[in-house]
Amino acid sequence: MLFSRESGILLHPTSLPGKHGIGDLGPEAIKWLDCLAEAGQKLWQVLPLGPTGYGDSPYQGLSSFAGNPLLISLDLLVKDELLDPEALEIIPRLPQGEVLYEKVIQPKQALLQKAAQRFLYEVPVTRLKDYVSFCEKESWWLDDFALYVAIKERQKLRPWSDWPEEYRDRDPEALDNARERLFDAIEEQKALQYFFYEQWATVRTAANERGIRIIGDMPIFIAHDSAGVWSHPELFKLDDQGQPTVIAGVPPDYFSKTGQRWGNPLYRWDLMAKDGYAWWKKRVAKTLEQVDIVRVDHFRGFAAYWEIPGDEPTAIHGKWVDGPGKAFFDEIVKEFGKTLPILAEDLGNITEDVIALRDGFGLPGMRILQFAFGTDPMKHTFLPEAFVENCIAYSGTHDNDTVCGWFHDDGSASSRTSEECETERQACLEVIGGDGNDIAWDFIETLLNSKAGAVIFPMQDVLGLGSEARMNTPGNPSGNWRWRMTEADFTPEMIKRLAKSIKDAGR
């Protein structure tokens, strides 16, 4: 099995503490790993690490292969003499507990550009050899990504489907001219990817040296406005103008009368099958270069996915379409071996075919303790007594309210009525025990003592925070992905408490 009585914490790198407005891959990331190790944790789960687009969502990335430049540590660039210390003064003083993207992005991008220029044009040639090797090794995705970003910036960040026709349709002569004209901007983007991967490699090595495995995240669908769709439009269901003819989402359910219209273009699975899903194999391999275990978001889409006509305003008028199923994972097994380092996000409308696909390849699924007490028709599967060893159990995810926020909600912070909130509270206390005064820790202790092979807690639950610390509210287009931990939050006393609970539970 993939997990053997382990415990870990979910915290995206943007939520790490630090002085430059957003968490990054510098010294604070190493301090974080030291705290995890001291607290007896063996797993660190992160969200997708790619560059974000509209809404700052890591699930709507500009690339499936690139890293997010906003995660690059400015302090490490100063240490490498790519920035002068005084250059960092352009970063405004910002609150410690929140990422204000609108105030962080512009000054940080300016500093990153300055560092890239110095690296490319001022450092000794001998130092560039590793960079050249990186560019050659990663050219299969890096060349298109850097060109995509360079053109996008000159097109005022418009989606690629709104670019002039010669760029939109990838006219070879037009792209050759763009490569020549935008050479400096393209090289700067490549340098930033080099910085990211260099810094992330240091973080991952430090994690593994401390006995910590990193769980990454790979959304099944990718953003329409991304380098991946622009560079390989033949793999997606698009019209002649590059617009999706059908899009991804989920149907109406207990939580949404109109379903969820995600807008991601859908794959041409029949075409992908002809070369043994080569694009997917590259994607999985690249993700496994970054992390030890991959959480596949919306796993059920491999069995069947909800297909919505591209011009529909909601997800109501869609239909279920068969996914690639077993044939896809047979190919993945051929490439990566029988024991796949994959975690299936098997939440939502889960049917027998989804369960058969998950269990047929021995993939651990997810159990969310918050879901055990509400109206979810599958809520019995989220009770601790129903856990199996080959699963990973959570107090909540990045899409949930915090445990404290959920427990103390009176109906104003969710779609539930006050009566439903009270019913769930009482059902929760019957299972968890206690009086609710330390509900987040009650959840942690319950999960630690369950039979689940692994348990994960969002850092907000470890800290006992309320709804103000929620990471994401699905359906809310703004104000998400902002929460940050401060340096003083993870106290020595809290670390000792967590370590003791881990030991007492035999994890």
UniProtKB/TrEMBL annotation:
Belongs to the disproportionating enzyme family. This is 4-alpha-glucanotransferase. Keywords: Carbohydrate metabolism, Glycosyltransferase, Transferase. Its EC number is 2.4.1.25. One of its GO terms (biological process) is carbohydrate metabolic process. Coiled coil: none annotated. Pfam families: Glyco_hydro_77. It comes from Rubellicoccus peritrichatus. InterPro entries: GH (IPR017853), Glyco_hydro_77 (IPR003385). GO terms for molecular function: 4-alpha-glucanotransferase activity. It catalyses: Transfers a segment of a (1->4)-alpha-D-glucan to a new position in an acceptor, which may be glucose or a (1->4)-alpha-D-glucan. The keyword DNA repair does not apply. SUPFAM superfamilies: (Trans)glycosidases.
